[in-house]
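Sequence only, no structure available. Ideas?
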Amino acid sequence: MLLTSRRLVLRHFRPGDEEAFAAYRSDPEVARYQAWDTPLSLREATAAVARHAAADPDRVGWFPYAIALDGHLIGDIGVNLHENRKQAEIGFSVATPFQGRGYATEAVERLLRHLFLDLDLHRVSAECDPRNTTSARLLERVGFRREGLRRENTWLRDEWVDDLLFGLLAPDYRRGRAAGGALSR
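Reply:
I predicted one. Tokens follow.
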């Protein structure tokens, strides 16, 4: 499955993605608010890319899309499809050299279009550490609403951290598109 946007392709992981995957997943700045450990060895990255490449986007559970720019892996965006197939959770990460250029926003917007218009989902949720203000602003910019805060909910890097909760409903998504807002792209 390929999802294309103006500059990006969201695709299956494939052989050849291992080095880029290991590089950005090993970057402490990219991993700062994520649950994975750093560094990620090339051996571990090879195994992860193989698992990701074999994943099925139509199955319930997590499916990781590779975010590609000009054929090169620059990040990933995951979808956790709920067993009722009407809800999903998303998460994303982009390599440091590609941050601040709108690629994450473009990837999230393209994925939302797929989830709401192609798959007819009712709700998409996301969460992030409240200190990750860049991701929180991105989620709000594309139409998510802050729905809550789970205090000291996640044990991450030897500390309890809060989880900021976001949600986007299909009617709100469609209204945003119809109004010509950020979601209309």
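The chain has a mean pLDDT of 95.
Hope that gets you unstuck.
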